[in-house]
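Q: what does this look like with NAP bound?
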Amino acid sequence: MPSRIILITGTNSGVGYAASKVIARKSSAFHVIMAGRSLDKVEAARAEIESSGDIKGSLSTIHLDVLDKISIHNAAAQIAQDFGRLDVLINNAAVGNLDPDLQTRLRINMETNFIGPALVSEAFRPLLEKSENPYAIYVSSGVGSLTRASNPDSSLYKTNSPVTKYGEGYATSKAALNMLALQQAMMNKDSMKIFAMCPGFVVSNLLRWDGDKANSGWGNAGDPMVSGETLLSILEGKRDADLGRFVHKDGVYPW
Ligand SMILES: NC(=O)c1ccc[n+]([C@@H]2O[C@H](COP(=O)([O-])OP(=O)(O)OC[C@H]3O[C@@H](n4cnc5c(N)ncnc54)[C@H](OP(=O)(O)O)[C@@H]3O)[C@@H](O)[C@H]2O)c1
């Protein structure tokens, strides 16, 4: 049995896919359970990673839709049966919904990016508690930082870009996720290592509204493999000095 069992939600693209690849390439000690709401998509992603070579760890897949409590609990029951514990939970799945209808985009962003991770954390807590060194990582976003959003010197302090026009739903969901991570970190500080983490601005499928142009950040987005390296550094204990904080590649964001 591998010594570290790692569950990542939303692994068929972007940060979750890259993190699965980085972690599986790192060590035979790691087993990555690639979760997704489409089993076909995560199985295709796993096959792609395995055929890319240089894999030292192992990979498996599981169906997990963060909007569906039954699917979350079925996944937890399956992992309990297969592994008996979980060492690392990476709550990564999210949407960047920019629907013009306010109620629609607030609801979809909050349900997927905040309520979903809360339900996933609750369902997997008993399995994490069976680990000798459990980590729970909430993949958030720098746009969820109230301190940055309210600082006129910050790059986030702007209101007229096409992304920010309907972006309050996403940003609000990440601010809520940050509060969840902070509260979880305080409540579980003696039993679990909990982080919020921003993966940086990287190529992914998050912004679907303008196709490839938005997905690549209009050419400005970075490589999600770098985000995967940051997640790896957290679960390897290299960021333990920042326990309970909102970390990114180069440091810590203010809440
Ligand atoms: N990319 C960036 O620049 C950036 C910046 C800051 C933070 N982030 C954060 O990084 C994380 C990963 O996003 P990404 O950028 O890699 O975007 P992405 O490529 O769109 O990946 C998001 C993943 O979440 C999955 N997902 C969506 N709804 C789900 C649900 N109900 N249940 C389960 N899985 C679901 C998606 O699956 P489907 O393909 O089935 O929809 C996909 O696998 C997110 O938390 C995001 O907020 C990204």
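Residues 46 and 208 are 22 Å apart (CA to CA). The chain has one domain: 4-253.
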